[in-house]
Design brief:
Pfam families: DUF6441 (PF20039). The protein is of the alpha+beta class and 61 residues long.
């Protein structure tokens, strides 16, 4: 499942990063006005790892 956004003028600033990555991935120079731009992809499984262990940091002090 892919979440799409419509490429319209009022959303230009919000979609700038998504449009840049979409153009690079698809190899196109320009995205037509009112075209759909993918902004999210549903993934089946996500693993989040701890980047900072607060318990260990506090105990070390």
């Amino acid at each position: 499942m892919v979440l799409m956004a419509e490429n319209i003028g009022e959303h230009d600033r919000l979609l700038a990063g998504f449009k840049r990555r979409y153009r690079k991935a698809e190899g196109v120079k320009r995205i037509a006005r009112r075209a759909d731009v993918p902004i999210a992809v549903l993934v089946p499984h996500v693993v989040l790892r701890k980047r900072l262990d607060m318990d260990q940091s506090v105990c070390a002090q």
